[in-house]
Amino acid sequence: MSRDDVRQSWRPGCPVPLSGLRKITMTYWGFDDQAHTGVLVINKKVAEDVASVFGKLYEMRYPIRRMVPVDVYKGSDNDSIDADNTSAFNCRNATGSGNWSNHAYGLAVDLNPRENPYVYANGSNAHRNADAFVDRPLKKPGVINSGDRVVRAFGQIGWGWGGSWSGAKDYQHFSENGR
């Protein structure tokens, strides 16, 4: 991994060094029922496990809208979410916090954020393009629900799902520590 790969999403002072990150290229099924090639930047210690989960998602033909590093969006988490982009590493604080996000360590993945929005405890969400996906469970392509095959696939590598949090729910979010 080179500095050019993460020019917008990594900077000196991030909690993981460049040497601790890996760029993994994977094939995924799109919403157009075609195979596509995507890229995730992730912590090297979990790269093989995460790639194995995405291999299972591919076998399931679970659809993913797009998968490009957040650098394509100049490091903007909001722009990446608005584009319904599946991503992982981004050196940023956790939503509503002054602490590092699990994404800043490369230990979290956001999957289809439009279909799986971050929903505040009051039921609102920050991304208007996700309004139709706030109420769960939905039986629509790309939607993740409690106990489904996507949650189980990440659970097999010990990762927790933001949809199981109390209060606010982050339906797109999977992380090594479950937060």
From TrEMBL:
InterPro entries: Peptidase_M15C, Zn_M74/Hedgehog-like
Domain of life of the source: Bacteria
Residues making up the signal peptide according to the UniProt record: none
Location of the Peptidase M15C domain: 95-175
Pfam families: Peptidase_M15_4
GO molecular function list: peptidase activity
Protein name: Peptidase M15C domain-containing protein
Organism: Microbispora bryophytorum
Lineage, top ranks: Bacteria, Bacillati, Actinomycetota, Actinomycetes, Streptosporangiales
